[in-house]
Write a structure and sequence with these properties.
Length: 240
């Protein structure tokens, strides 16, 4: 593209003439150079820096590690890697967000729609347990052991347990490895493996899986179709 390219010069020409076309058709007609320019402009300005956005009304602050956009047929796919995330007080070490089926609808403002967003990331086990312990209706206090397993202590009974847990398709499965009551071991036949359906996530998101890897929990979430609007001219001025 050379060193003298201008984001404004290559994007303003396509907005008005195709403003009345359908979203899928419009996106198929968007020059790849437009999306490349937007991707490079955003990456050049924000990669390596801390950014703050609002997601479902909650502020999210993170450092943008990488960002790119590529065409997939008539649509686009965007991929962003974030580190050091603070999601409304919830700390996450790293998240990779992949927006699939991205479509642009020109106009004032420009609209962007995604068919699905896949989130893959990791969170420290200790940070996750600290958030769980804040729940006022929980009968247990949870601690991260040196081994990476979870020690559960009942708030009102002299009952402790060493457990592990995983999530698959919005269902939490708990494996009780051993337990003690008043210091005495509880026989294995009295240690059920609870299966707990998780409450719905905001915006119909889905817990695909979450597994413990040492002192880290790796997770995958799916967020269904989202739609938002932005001021293209303002964005171009910002990243140009």
């Amino acid at each position: 593209m050379g060193t003298g390219w201008s984001l404004s010069s290559i994007t303003t020409s396509w907005v008005d003439p195709v403003a009345t076309l359908g979203a899928g058709t419009m996106t198929a007609l968007v020059p790849d150079s437009v999306m490349t320019a937007l991707s490079l402009g955003i990456a050049r300005r924000y990669v390596g820096r801390e950014v703050t956005v609002t997601l479902q009304g909650v502020p999210v602050t993170a450092r943008l590690g990488s960002f790119r956009v590529r065409r997939q047929g008539a649509h686009f796919e965007s991929r962003a890697r974030l580190t050091g995330i603070d999601w409304g007080g919830h700390a996450l070490e790293e998240v990779t967000a992949v927006a699939n089926g991205v479509r642009l609808v020109p106009g004032a403002p420009t609209r962007v729609r995604t068919a699905q967003i896949d989130l893959e990331g990791r969170v420290a086990l200790s940070a996750l347990l600290a958030q769980v312990n804040l729940q006022s209706n929980l009968d247990w206090i949870l601690f991260a052991e040196e081994s990476g397993l979870i020690r559960a202590e009942h708030r009102h009974r002299r009952l402790t347990a060493l457990v592990d847990a995983s999530i698959a398709d919005d269902v939490l499965r708990i494996e009780v490895i051993r337990a003690r009551w008043r210091g005495l071991p509880v026989p294995g036949r009295y240690l059920p493996a609870p299966v707990i359906p998780l409450p719905p996530l905001p915006n119909d998101a889905r817990n695909v899986r979450a597994t413990r890897d040492g002192h880290v929990v790796r997770f995958t979430l799916e967020i269904p179709m989202l739609s938002s609007s932005f001021d293209l001219t303002q964005l171009l001025r910002l990243i140009g």
